[in-house]
Amino acid sequence: MLFLFAGCAPKHPVTDPPKEPVPGSFFDSQGKPLTESALLHSIKNKDFILIGESHDNPCDHHTQARVIELMAMEGQKYVLGLEMVSVERQEILGMFNEGFINVDQLPDMLQWQDHWGYDFELYRPIFDKARAYLIPVKALNLPSHVTRNISHHGLDNLPPEDKEYLPEKLIEPPEEQLQMLREQFELHEDLIQADQVKFRRFVAAQSAWDTKMAYEAVKALEGKQKSVIILAGTGHVAMGWGIEHRLRQLLPEARIAGIVPVRALDDIRPDNPFNYFCPPSRERMRLGIVAQEENNRVMVIGVVQGSISMEAGLEKGDEILRAGDKDISSLVDLHLAAVDAVNNNQALELEIMRNDKVKIIEIVFDSN
Q: For 242, which of 17, 158, 346, 352 is 20 to 30 Å away at the CA?
C-alpha cells in the first residue's frame, strides 16, 4: 500500500508560515495542547477509551500505540478491542494473547489482507505494544459478509448462520448520525433522491456494526477488566455518535472518553473531548513526492512533474536517509524536517541512497 505523505510545506509559502504541531501531539476540545501526562490523567479512569483513526495513516497508528503504551506504563489493566478483527477470529487472538503465536504470524493466521485490506504493517506498532505489555486483544466486529448482506438484502433476509453474529438488539443511531449517514449514502449512491429501502438497509448495516462493537466491548469490561481501549475508524468515534452512543444505551453510567485524529487544528470541534494531530496520509505531497514507509525506511516511489523535488533532482527509487539534521526512519520524521526547514526559511538538505551510493540533494522552497 502506498502512503502519500502529507503536505510538508506550501510550494509558495507565506512570509511567516504558521507552525504546525508535532505529529502525535494531543489537544483538548478547545484546541489547548495537552501533555501526555495530562491526557493520561484525564482518561486513565474511564471505562471505555475510544481512539479513532484513518485506516491508512501510519501516524494515527503510531499515536494509538503510544496511548496504549502510556496506559500500560501507568499500570492500568485493560483490554484492547479492535474494529479490524471480526469475532469469529477471536480464537486466533486468544492464541496471541496466550503467547502461542507471535506478531509475525498474525497476518496469515487472521487472513488480515483478505478480511481487513489495509496493510498489516500499519498496525504492527499496536500489536507490538500489546505483546510487550501483555495486553489482551479482543475482536469486536461483525464478519464483513454479514454487514454486506444486511446492506444488500436487509436484516430480515439474513440466513440463520449470519443472524447468529448479530447483537441481541440493534441500537438505532442518534438523529445527528442519521443525517450524516443519509448524506454519505446519497453521495455513495450518486443519487439526488436515494432509494429509501436501500437507505434503511444501509442504516441497519451501520447500526449493526456499531452495536456489535459496543456489545463486545461491554463483555470485555464485564470480564473484570478495569477498562477497554477501542480502536476504530474515526466515523465510529467522532461526536460520540457511533460506538459511544451504543455504549451509553447499554451502560448508562459508563465513563467514556473519545480521542479523534485531526489533520489541522481548525478541525477541532467542542463535541470531541480529546484530539490528536496527524498530517494526512493521502494528500499529494507538496514537496512533490510520493513516499512509502517500509521497515523503518522511507522510499521515494514517485516524483511529481515540475515539483521542487524534481527540480532538486530527487528520483523514484531513492531512499531518504537524512533530512536536515534528522535521521529518517518514518514519514513523520520527513514531515517534521520539512516543516522545520520552512519555518526557519531554510533549504531542506536530503541525504539519499541511490544505486548503493549516497548523494546530497538540496530542496529550496520558493519564498515568493
A: 158
- Residue 111 gets which letter from DSSP? T
pTM: 0.74
Nearest to 220 by CA among 89, 96, 47, 101: 47
CATH of the domain at 255: 3.40.50.11550
One domain for residues 257 and 285: no
Q: How many Å apart are CA 209 and CA 202, to the nearest integer? A: 11
pLDDT tens for each residue of the chain, 368 residues long: 233 333 333 343 433 444 678 889 999 999 999 999 999 999 999 999 999 999 988 889 999 999 999 999 998 889 999 999 999 999 999 999 999 999 999 999 999 988 998 889 889 999 999 999 999 999 999 998 999 899 888 999 999 999 999 999 999 999 988 888 777 776 555 444 457 788 888 899 999 999 999 999 999 998 766 899 999 999 999 999 999 999 999 999 999 999 999 999 999 999 999 999 998 864 444 577 777 777 778 888 777 666 788 889 999 889 999 998 889 987 777 877 887 787 778 899 999 999 999 999 999 876 54
C-alpha cell at 326: 534528522
Inter-axis angle of helices 196-222 and 144-153, to 10 degrees?
A: 150
Q: Which domain holds residue 158?
A: 26-277
Count Cβ atoms below 10 Å from residue 149 Cβ, excluding itself: 18
Same structural domain for residues 213 and 304?
no
Which one of 238, 260, 277 terminates a domain? 277
The backbone torsions φ and ψ at residue 200, rounded to the nearest 5 degrees and listed phi first, read -60, -40
Are 243 and 305 contained in the same domain?
no
C-alpha cell at 163: 443472524
Asked if residue 342 lies in contact with residue 9, where contact means CB atoms within 8 angstroms, the answer is yes
Question: Residue 344 contacts by C-beta under 8 Å, 6 or more apart in sequence?
Answer: none
46 touches 274 (CB < 8 A): no
